[in-house]
Structure formats: C-alpha cells, structure tokens
TrEMBL record:
HAMAP family for this protein: Deacylase_Dtd (MF_00518)
Protein name: D-aminoacyl-tRNA deacylase
GO cellular component, one term: cytoplasm
Enzyme Commission (EC) number: 3.1.1.96
Amino acid sequence: MNCYCISTLSSLTTLRNINTRPTRATTSKLQIRAMRAVVQRVSSASVEVDGNTVSEIGPGLVVLVGLHESDTDSDADYICRKVLNMRLFPNETTGRAWDQNVMQRNYGVLLVSQFTLYGIMKGNKPDFHVAMPPQKAKPFYDSVVEQFRKSYTPDAIKDGVFGAMMKVNLVNDGPVTMQLDSLQSSKSTIDAVQEP
C-alpha cells in the first residue's frame, strides 16, 4: 500500500489527481512561469555584434537570461542572488570542489538576453509566445543587469546587446552548465497540483 504525506494538499480529490495522468488543462498549468537562467562556468567568453567585440570576460560565468511574460522584480532578485552565490568554483586553498562563488573568486559575469529559452516546439517550429514581449523585455532586462551591478562589482558585470544578432564565444570550463528557474516555478506547480 502506497502512503502519501503531502501537507500542501487540501483534499483527497487532489491527492487522487496526482496519481492520474495529467489532462491538457493541468499540463498547461504546470508550464514553468519563471525567469530562466542557463549558467555556464567559463575560462573566457565574449560577445560579438556585426564583427565587433562588445563585451568580454576572463574566468567566470556566462548567464543566458530568458524572461517569461509574467516575470516581476522578485524573479530578478532571486536569479541575481542565486547566480552570484552558486558555488561552482573550487577552493584552491583547501582543494575543495564546488566551494566558492564567482564573487569570492573576483571573476566576471557575462549576461546575455535570450528569449529562445522560452521557445516551445509546435511541431518542428519554435513558438515564443510565452517570452516577455520585446517592448517590455528591454527595460526589464536592463533592470536585471543593473541589479547584478548593484549586488557585485559593477565593472565585473558585462552584457551583450539586447535584441541584436549576437555571436557568443565561450570556453566552458568543466564543462559546467546549470539551469536555474526563479521561485515562481515552484509556486505555479503547487497551485496546479492543488487545483481540484
């Protein structure tokens, strides 16, 4: 006999729904509604636009930032805090792996806006309707960059050119690549599970 102990569920009906196959309505509610970041530990990285290098860093992190249409300042705060505190670097003094964050190493962070992180495949063609629209996304992305600069050394934070066709060159160190979604994702999942 299977035993479940789920404190966030309010009824047996909801518990029964967890054990059944999700309906189309439930599946759509489970869709991630959060800011998304793909974080890569790099030895070096740069961004080119029209053949010109617009940003570059040495060792550090490249962060591809995807904005969902429902993102708020709290999502930006969460992503900024988590990225800067992710222990993705070894401690050369103690020999411990996964022990230091980018700030402890005084490394750079290269932010790159990437709406394609919210691409949904419709057949063989990507659909980007859940990504934040460009007219809203540009000022929001600028505020994300500013949040990183306020939270760390401003000169250590670089970014690409919003909306431009960019060539991102990087040497992934490890390779180490992590995907991070803001807290809204867990909230929307709980809401979907709780719905009768």
